């Protein structure tokens, strides 16, 4: 498809979206639905911004890291004080970071949430540096962000290895980022929802109810977040959570970012060897704990389901949630993935569940044949640009050039046709959710480069 219209080239249109979403220090995912700074959105946005505004890309990451907590966590939302506090739910009055998070070292000068999101930031920082190394060196960009990124990874690896097997657990579906994925249905079913009268959703003022999570989902999100907050956002043994899941995508992104931290360390004159080794250990732990060779898929591990099971016995596998979410394909981004695992994942991506071999425009967020598949409901089927961008990278990394090129072309076509939609129907490419969405525009710029 030709990407130039009377409104300018696709790259110019994408850059204009990022200009409109820029607040002066960071970029909002959407002016309407998400009017603050989101953690993994900012990482993807920086990856695109680096091509058109490298200084802004560096600032994007620096702003986020300035809100880091003393214990190393990078909060999933940094609230913009200029936006009315009830514009988004749950807002600053719900999270109460400065008070409830004091024990965990929440910063005093900025209001944030208390949960995290996938650690894409070191990967983003490295890519941002490489786009303009002269500017980066002149500003000391890497030497400023490196300690914060190292502390962030340390927090995840030391405070969040709740299963004790070398992988990080998420304690809320919002942490993993694919909020209402069917992968969470079983672990969430144990959580008693907060009553609907206890909160007021704001998302439905900007998005169609049929494209968003249900009220029951929200009740459970609110319950989990409120319990975590009321426990002072503590993670250690006394902070035992009702929901604790090891997720393939979250851990794969941590391993990819650990490789990126190794590159950053080397650029700064240190040895990166230990970090590469850690990334490889994470990759090995992913395969050992989450890979199912018969299914040819990575699955989530529900730590609470395994509580009653002997983790060494054959029943330990029952703790795997055998739903095919796109999260299970994301480890394809890892260079140290065993060759046969990578080949099997490519088969799954091309097969009938994800359709990349034919049948869909973009890979869905969930199994096309799964019982819970819904082509329009948020993370229960629609195709998203960040996950497809990661798959494109993974396919290229493992030598699947033609498949990657087809996916890249489809991403650009769909982004152009939907005015940078938040997510799309995987079959038709019809846009859903917000338009002028931050990471869709940013990753378009990255693919165009
Ligand atoms: C969505 O999540 C937020 C909560 O964090 C929401 O639904 O209000 C998810 O798609 C998440 O992955 C994304 O980072 C966020 C902002 O784009 O929106």
TrEMBL record:
Keywords from the UniProt entry: Glycosidase, Hydrolase
InterPro entries: 6-hairpin_glycosidase_sf, 6hp_glycosidase-like_sf, Glycoside_hydrolase_63, MGH1-like_GH
Keyword Lipoprotein annotated: no
Mannosylglycerate hydrolase MGH1-like glycoside hydrolase domain segment(s): 34-440
Gene3D superfamilies the UniProt entry points to: 1.50.10.10
Lineage top rank: taxon: Bacteria
Similarity field: Belongs to the glycosyl hydrolase 63 family.
Protein name, UniProt field: Mannosylglycerate hydrolase MGH1-like glycoside hydrolase domain-containing protein
Lineage: Bacteria, Bacillati, Actinomycetota, Actinomycetes, Kitasatosporales
């Amino acid at each position: 498809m030709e990407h130039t219209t009377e409104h300018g080239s696709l790259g110019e249109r994408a850059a204009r979206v990022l200009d409109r979403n820029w607040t002066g220090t960071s970029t909002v995912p959407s002016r309407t639905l998400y009017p603050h700074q989101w953690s993994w959105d900012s990482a993807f946005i920086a990856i695109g911004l680096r091509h058109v505004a490298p200084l802004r890309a560096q600032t994007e990451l620096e702003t986020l890291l300035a809100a880091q907590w003393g214990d190393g966590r990078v909060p999933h939302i940094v609230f913009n004080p200029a936006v009315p506090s009830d514009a988004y739910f749950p807002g600053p009055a719900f999270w109460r970071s400065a008070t409830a998070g004091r024990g965990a070292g929440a910063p005093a000068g900025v209001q944030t949430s208390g949960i995290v999101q996938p650690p894409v930031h070191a990967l983003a920082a490295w890519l941002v540096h490489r786009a303009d190394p002269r500017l980066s060196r002149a500003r000391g960009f890497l030497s400023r962000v490196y300690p914060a990124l190292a502390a962030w990874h340390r927090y995840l690896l030391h405070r969040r290895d709740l299963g004790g097997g070398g992988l990080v657990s998420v304690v809320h579906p919002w942490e993993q980022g694919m909020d209402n994925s069917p992968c969470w249905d079983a672990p969430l079913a144990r959580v008693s929802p907060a009553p609907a009268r206890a909160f007021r959703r704001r998302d439905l003022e900007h998005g169609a109810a049929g494209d968003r999570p249900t009220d029951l989902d929200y009740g459970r999100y609110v319950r989990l977040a409120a319990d975590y907050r009321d426990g002072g956002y503590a993670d250690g043994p006394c902070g035992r959570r009702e929901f604790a899941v090891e997720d393939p995508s979250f851990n794969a992104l941590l391993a990819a970012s650990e490789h990126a931290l190794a590159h950053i360390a080397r650029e700064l004159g240190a040895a990166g060897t230990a970090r590469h080794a850690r990334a490889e250990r994470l990759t090995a732990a992913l395969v050992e704990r989450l890979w199912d060779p018969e299914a040819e898929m990575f699955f989530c591990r529900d730590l609470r389901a395994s509580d009653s099971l002997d983790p060494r016995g054959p029943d330990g596998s029952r703790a795997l949630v055998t739903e095919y979410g796109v999260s299970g394909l994301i480890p394809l981004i890892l260079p140290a993935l065993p060759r046969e695992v990578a080949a099997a994942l490519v088969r799954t991506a091309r097969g009938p569940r994800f359709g990349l071999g034919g049948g869909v425009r973009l890979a869905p967020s969930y199994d096309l044949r799964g019982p819970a598949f819904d082509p329009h409901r948020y993370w229960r089927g629609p195709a998203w640009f960040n996950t497809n961008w990661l798959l494109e990278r993974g396919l290229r990394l493992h030598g699947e050039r033609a498949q990657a090129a087809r996916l890249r072309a489809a991403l650009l076509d769909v982004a152009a046709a939907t005015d940078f939609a938040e997510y799309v129907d995987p079959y038709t490419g019809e846009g859903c959710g917000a338009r002028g969405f931050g990471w869709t525009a940013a990753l378009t710029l990255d693919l165009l480069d």
